[in-house]
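Entry for the shared binder. Reason: the reviewer on the internal report wants the predicted structure included alongside the sequence.
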Amino acid sequence: MSSVELRRELEEYLKSLDIETTCVEHPEVFTVEEMMPHLQHLSGTVSKNLFLKDKKKKGLWLVTARHDRQVNLNDLAKKLGVGSGNLRFAEEAAMLEKLQVGQGCATPLALFFDKQKDVRLVLDSSLVNGDYERIYFHPMTNSASTGLRPGDFMKFLKETGHEPILQSFE
């Protein structure tokens, strides 16, 4: 399926859950720095996403944090119990297989396509426990950003069977 078809399928799923979204179309972006000029006017916060694997390739992890947070992979690996130095970026092929998205398009919204629940989500607790009106993620393409209310995002995760591991990245 093309990214347009995947996006449409995701949007239909969100509607079926009565989740209201807002969407901002923008040029293709591959980094948070490229994306922020298009989103800085919005109320809410923007996420950044890292698709990782552990060294022994036994686990796939999607880390979703506020765009301005530092994610120390060694510290995170210790907290997740996979051992210091054991988290690294996963190959694009794994992301395409499990989440249906490629480089620059990682998003927790793609967990909808992880039917086997092979990917564990590590979520910056400030995204859902903060006072943000909306959290913005890519909707299966890096040429748009979709905003969800934190409660609706948690509902989405529950419905897809992906219980997040809440972490503080402060």
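Summary line for the report: The first strand starts at residue 22 and ends at 25.
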